[in-house]
Design a protein that fits this description.
It contains six helices and ten strands; from the N terminus they run E-E-E-H-E-E-E-H-H-H-E-H-E-H-E-E. The chain has 227 residues and is of the alpha/beta class.
């Protein structure tokens, strides 16, 4: 049986006297693929940042667990934020941006790191842009760069906030293949408005609109079926 890797208990979050999240409970099992959707402003990105411990909730607790179900302070997490959180003017190349995903990861020598970067560049089809500054990239190319950065450390948990945004159509099918492969060994939490394909890949479907509701309908992208 899959065991819990992340647990949220009675999470609430207030911004400017407005409650963004209210009394959210969630247990994420090792090996889950969680598809998360909901209305704009419903708290999806805030929920992810609370899970990542980038935001401290107003109340409630976030706990991580290892394979033996012991509490731990940190997990090996790869994170793809929304593109609009990245300053494309930052003077860094595609190769450097992707390799930054290895910062803080021990046991990787310079040769192994270089090989991983080359593999990821091919995976996200950016090997021809390795030396390009990120400020020169299209929106889709930058999104692929950020995906590569999230994947390169081979995380145990992959958190993706609107990964399909800005992607050109000829790469959209490729990202589904990548996610299908990664989810075999990785716990995935993915926020998206586009659920037509993701819903068939996910093991669980969540709707976030201040509170959290787990959907049991076959096609999660039609929220009315989940009421």
């Amino acid at each position: 049986m899959n065991n819990t890797i992340i647990r949220l208990h009675e999470i609430s979050m207030n911004w400017d006297n407005r409650e963004v999240l209210h009394d959210v409970d969630l247990s994420v099992c090792r090996g889950d693929f969680l598809a998360i959707t909901g209305p704009n402003g419903g708290g999806k990105s805030t929920l992810l940042k609370v899970i990542l411990k980038l935001l401290k909730p107003t109340s409630g607790t976030v706990d991580y667990f290892d394979h033996d179900r012991n509490p731990v302070q940190r997990l090996h997490i790869g994170y793809l934020p929304q593109k609009n959180m990245i300053d494309a003017r930052f003077p860094i190349s595609v190769r450097e941006a992707i390799s930054s995903g290895l910062l803080g990861i021990s046991g990787i020598d310079k040769h192994d790191a270089s090989e991983r970067v080359n593999q990821i560049l091919r995976l996200v089809e950016l090997h021809g842009h390795a030396s390009s500054p990120i400020g020169e990239l299209s929106g889709g190319q930058l999104q692929r760069t950020l995906l590569g950065r999230a994947l390169i450390s081979r995380p145990s948990v992959l958190v993706l906030d609107e990964p399909l945004s800005y992607l050109d159509k000829n790469f959209e099918g490729r990202i589904y293949d990548i996610l299908s492969e990664v989810s075999r060994d990785t716990t995935v939490l993915l926020v998206s408005h586009e659920m037509s394909v993701i819903s068939t890949m996910a093991t669980r479907h969540l709707i976030v609109d201040r509170t959290l509701h787990e959907c049991t309908a076959r096609h999660h992208y039609v929220p009315s079926e989940c009421q």
